[in-house]
Specification:
4 copies of one chain form a homotetramer.
Chain A: H1 3-13, H2 16-19, E1 24-28, E2 32-37, H3 52-71, E3 77-86, E4 95-104, E5 108-117, E6 123-133
Amino acid sequence: MDILTLQSALPTYFAPWVQALDLQVESFAADSVLLRLPHSDQLSRTGGMVCGQAMMAAADTAMVLALINHFGEFRPCTTVQMNSSFLKPLSKQDGLVEARVIRAGKSLAFGEIDIRGAHDGKSVCRASVTYALL
Amino acid sequence: MDILTLQSALPTYFAPWVQALDLQVESFAADSVLLRLPHSDQLSRTGGMVCGQAMMAAADTAMVLALINHFGEFRPCTTVQMNSSFLKPLSKQDGLVEARVIRAGKSLAFGEIDIRGAHDGKSVCRASVTYALL
Amino acid sequence: MDILTLQSALPTYFAPWVQALDLQVESFAADSVLLRLPHSDQLSRTGGMVCGQAMMAAADTAMVLALINHFGEFRPCTTVQMNSSFLKPLSKQDGLVEARVIRAGKSLAFGEIDIRGAHDGKSVCRASVTYALL
Amino acid sequence: MDILTLQSALPTYFAPWVQALDLQVESFAADSVLLRLPHSDQLSRTGGMVCGQAMMAAADTAMVLALINHFGEFRPCTTVQMNSSFLKPLSKQDGLVEARVIRAGKSLAFGEIDIRGAHDGKSVCRASVTYALL
């Protein structure tokens, strides 16, 4: 795996509206990927807070890249369920989105995502997802 | 409450990227609102399937409008947690997003969202949310 | 389907500790079952409040019966994920546990559960579950 | 904090049916507690698999102890929402239940629980919870 392959998955497999998040692949490890969600007025409500909708979308998207990283290639899959908790606001800073494959079986994969502030390092959103592998 | 007030909450309280969903308030009832999520290439992956990220964002957004409808005015609130299940794809048709307030207490509100195809009427996504009332 | 078949599934397929909930099948419909969770000191914390653990266990158990009702027979399945929201306490009264199959596909089934007070009829717990059909 | 204090919280604050899980406090750290869920026929379905209901109940219970550990004393709280994912069966072995406080604010606390096999160390259940602090 390499960063360019993961980065190029974004325009290949995702809707234009998701691409507008402008996610940047920062790094990857055995079972995880790390993406940057750049702060932007487009994603913010008044006060510079990144909207929760953008964080959920970033989390779900990052998890697909974590599965590509895990399998070594894109495998068709569909999100079955996603649960997101919002711990505190993400304000006036980029988010770092870490998606980790917890378990990948034959037909189901489980993952967890943590989003933290790029500046202060504090967790702002935690999510867990279930994917069906097609 | 009236449809115009609910519709105008979208540009007032939501990030531009969420406004790009182009949600349209169709109707409201005692404890629920119904929004249309127009089908669009911007929100679709190959094959005309609406991306899950757009459905989660529409669900969360619709719930805020359901709370405005419930309280008769906008009250500051924040999403604490959201759980979404994806039952089947939403393909080549608008979505109808129905958000319902299940319970609103002093500090917490609970809601549920159903998204179904505008053409075939089939449920494609069901979500439950917890909001903190500030 | 008949009530006796559903009731007899409880000692057949569930652990003794789950049977100790003493769930009673009250009725069933096309895609749902209704069970009674009798109030008991064994399930209660101080103040007569039914513990959340018992409500989650009742919800999960009721859903298995709803699937038996849906398929007309027991099919091996496993809970993949369950999300529970606790709206208000259930105090000094039985609970009525309604489990509904929302969608049953080839490999996954989705269901929703509502628990309300048998006396006052108020919703106290809402849950959604995903099952893998084996 | 000490193990005896945490252990004695079980008969003090939990329903007899929850006490029947026979949870044993093994250790605690800054923001987490580790409990043992002893394997038992009472909690098992045929084949020696621990039922999911017991794992959810153990997870929720462990989190209350993690909050006692975090605050240094019992604070009245109520579970608002809990999401559980079941990764694989827990068969013929004890479970180790690790509950961690992710964030505790003024009115809400967030936690995550991992249950793994005491023998093989593999994760079988992951849960996230939201508590309201009263």
